[in-house]
């Protein structure tokens, strides 16, 4: 039978790792040897995507073979970007609205995984640290309520993604409370620290709590790359139900690569700042920073650095990163945390704001559809998002094997076990 090809997938989604899971089936298009496009049913584990934003968790999960069936966020601007990126699909719902008002009746009941990138505002070091009692980060409890209401339809696996500040917020009490809440719903918890910098030239450390109804055997060999010393207290707290899955070691953090992701732009482009603005930029640098920047300016060849504005003693000053890696992209509220790009070398120094395409590339989403997004809408969306390759790594190495029940649980070195 021949079907007209319908793009039911995200632009960047992959059709790999399709498994014969008990969960939902849906059509995948394939081209037969005669060149005809046919539709076949292949099962991919279904996902609920909470706090979906612009859908970067979806991109990472679907590249590993998951299928996001339902997503929720309350910002219309983010929904607009999400819908421009992912083709319309009758098998997917984006529910726009406050999670506090989301009813369990609207959630698909056959999901294997629930992903939540809950707001970090009250947990990040930059914030006032109200923690999970804060108005924004407290939305986590609505996620827990919905999992509670799902009852026997609760997904086998859950992920909570947040800033690493969650581990120290209120002396660890917020993380303890989150683990306890998952424990009460039957999930054992593994806690991992993973920096997007292992995959991209952007420093973006994040915490991932992976909850499993059927956890793998605890691997007491602490994997210090993923579970550093500052997380070990979690596993020492015997009042919590935790496990440590045996995982491969992620790639080493990148020390270069920013320059390769910078958008090609002629020096005459009007986005480069004019002389007086550039002079003010240089004037706001500390003497050490100015020396470093001026030294680079004199070298031959072009180098790029990122800069961000911060307030010191009530005055806005610029700080330039010393390396070929971007600082953590953040939401561009009020322009104060927008990143700038500094181009140095051949006796020139030029500055401009970082573009939406550069934000997308630094989040591992270089092919994201930006056609209809306003600049601040895009910067806001990407600044809030999760880095695609960090999600993809976790999905391939942990979540998919966990859902399929074949996670490596050997005590032997994992890299060996996986290769052998
Ligand atoms: C850390 S971001 C997650 C971004 C997402 N993972 C992505 O890749 O774009 C948190 C998201 O939660 C959303 N949010 C905050 N409060 C909410 C609420 N009460 N109900 C629904 N969504 C909310 C924000 O709009 C934001 O997109």
Automatic annotation (TrEMBL):
GO biological process, one term: methylation
Region of interest called Disordered, as start-end residue ranges on this chain: 1-28
EC number: 2.1.1.37
InterPro entries xrefs: C5-MTase, C5_MeTfrase, SAM-dependent_MTases_sf
Source lineage: Bacteria, Bacillati, Actinomycetota, Actinomycetes, Micrococcales
GO molecular-function terms, A-Z: DNA (cytosine-5-)-methyltransferase activity
Keywords noted in UniProt: Methyltransferase, Restriction system, S-adenosyl-L-methionine, Transferase
Ranges of compositional bias, category Basic and acidic residues: 1-10
Protein name, as recorded: DNA (cytosine-5-)-methyltransferase
Biased composition range(s): Polar residues: 11-23
Class of this enzyme: transferase
Residues forming the catalytic site: 120
Pfam family, one: DNA_methylase
Protein family membership: Belongs to the class I-like SAM-binding methyltransferase superfamily. C5-methyltransferase family.
PROSITE patterns, per database record: SAM_MT_C5
